[in-house]
Amino acid sequence: MFFRTKINDLLQWAEKPNRKPLIIRGARQVGKTTLVNMFAERFEQYIYLNLERPEDRKLFNDTGSSDKIIQSIFLAKSKSITVKKTLIFIDEIQNSSTAMKMLRYFYEDFPEIYVIAAGSLLESLLDFKESFPVGRVEYEYLYPFSFEEYLLAKGKNGLVEALQQVPFTESLAHLLKEEYSNYALIGGMPEIIKTYVQTNDLNNLKSIYESLLVSYLDDVEKYARNQNWSNILKHIIKTSFNEAGSRIKYEGFGKSHYKNREVKEAFSLLEKTMLLKLMFPTNSTRPPITMNFGRAPKLHVLDTGLINYFAGIQKEFVFKNNLEDVYSGRIAEHLVGQEFFALKNSQLNKPTFWLREKSQSSAEVDFVYRFEDILIPVEVKSGKSGRLRSLMQFMDAAPHNVAVRIYSGDLTIEETQTINGKKFLLLNLPIFLTGKLESYLEWMRNFRNLEMTYLKSQF
Prior knowledge:
Number of domains: 2
Number of helices: 17
Structural class: alpha/beta
Shape: globular
Low-confidence stretches: 451-458
Number of strands: 14
Strand order of the largest sheet: 7-9-10-11-12-14-13
Strand content: 15-25%
Helix content: 25-40%
Distance between the termini: 37 Å
């Protein structure tokens, strides 16, 4: 079933005693409207407003009281205001500052009405500083499908149950690997997955990938403040697919003539739309995480499937049929990052990577993952082996003894040590279990009741 996990999140929101209007944040085409339409089946009455339509937008042009606006909405949609369980979904809300202001009055004056709002790809380019109801709304973030959600969409309920068992049933590893390879190839965009499930034909996906890119570029034309700004945003969108997974520089990004300041500002705007993310490094080995915004960030785009298509590596991926030989491991790292961004589900608790830069010795760990009160280094290896020198340098500086390698091998817990002799436990996690990292860290903590007693006080 599509969006089962997110619908459960919406049900929790609906049951809150002091519920606020909910704003669903996500890039265009991640399924915001589809999700709410499915959720609406649980209500006695559903009112859908799309503020790109003039007739819906005019309902918020009334300069009278909020009561009159509410009455206009119910009358225009031939709905009864006396029905107790009514859901109003205001789509493309960025097209009306009055509608934004109304969210406050929904919360204060009409708490019995369930209200959800959403906006398009570049909603943050509009100025809502005066109209945005700070403190009167809450948020739900929508990302492309995770691997588990992909399996649900395909009806692979048995494999979903296998993922939820910790540890998973190893006899099903070959099936999980096969499905993960398909997921890694096409990505997590809902329409892509739906079409692939129906046809099982990659050729049918080409027009959808192209339409996704066109929709992002069209939004730039719609909201960019001038032509030069439009050109910069378009250049970044088009170039990002080739640069994803790499550390980037603003100045001359993508072999352009654009300057540091304008590229940095454009990236900041596109990041707010959730079309891409900039992952900055940290040198922290214990909380709190302090990010170094003066160092080059890594670029993470919305979806790995979009990278595969627009970077032109889908055919190579299909031919080699695994993650080990494609794109020098960057696809594997990007897939892990995509799962991590969805797991954190927060704009405040973002994934980061560890960087130590010294004149004669530098080190970089792919991810730093906060688990309870410790920071765990996570290295992603596209193959079954790989040197872990940087991870070991992190462990030498860390106050605990736990690390993670995500790779294409088997699930194991390994007792090892750094070059300097510090002992630690290394969780070797198959890449298809990335979304279950926290469950496996819990399992690892209880593994054999932690017979290695030197760990008991530190993890």
